[in-house]
Specification:
Elements: H1 10-27, H2 32-56, H3 67-77, H4 80-93, E1 111-113, E2 116-118, E3 121-123, E4 131-134, E5 140-142, H5 143-158
Antiparallel strand pairs: 1-4, 2-3, 4-5
Helix pairs in contact: 1-2, 1-5, 2-4, 2-5, 4-5
Length: about 160
Amino acid sequence: MMTRGVRTTPRSFYDKFVLPNLEDYLADPHDIRRGFNASVSAFQLADVMFNFYSRNDGSKISNWEDQSDFLKYLSRREPSFQTIQSVATVYKHLYLANRQSFHEVGSPADLWSIGVLEGDELSRDHSHPDVLVRRFDGTSVSLKNALESVVLRLWPDVLPQEGGI
């Protein structure tokens, strides 16, 4: 007899994948692979949330016309979401042939681990490692800061409470 497994809800995906991937990255914040993994799950949660509620409780996503509208909302609410989306997309496709307006990064070579940003200056101080993301506009941002903004601030505010689903 086959038993029905536990469903993956947006909250369980956050708890089982998004947070642990961030914790793995923060334990070794110069590791680009861990940074990619944390970015993919943090971005993928948007798909999980939108598709889960599309099938189970449309009222939770009724503020958005479609998934694209939801992604735009997330980027407006937390600009670092666009960085995480870009890093996740680069990881998935390994190269972006064009500069679509919602991507800030063009290839995996645009992520590197050499130090931290202090203001607009790059520090060669390796005592505070980080992965830096070079955007199309030539600026660089801290992947650690972007992930913390998305995972620890954006998602806890956006994810609906779950009960009885």
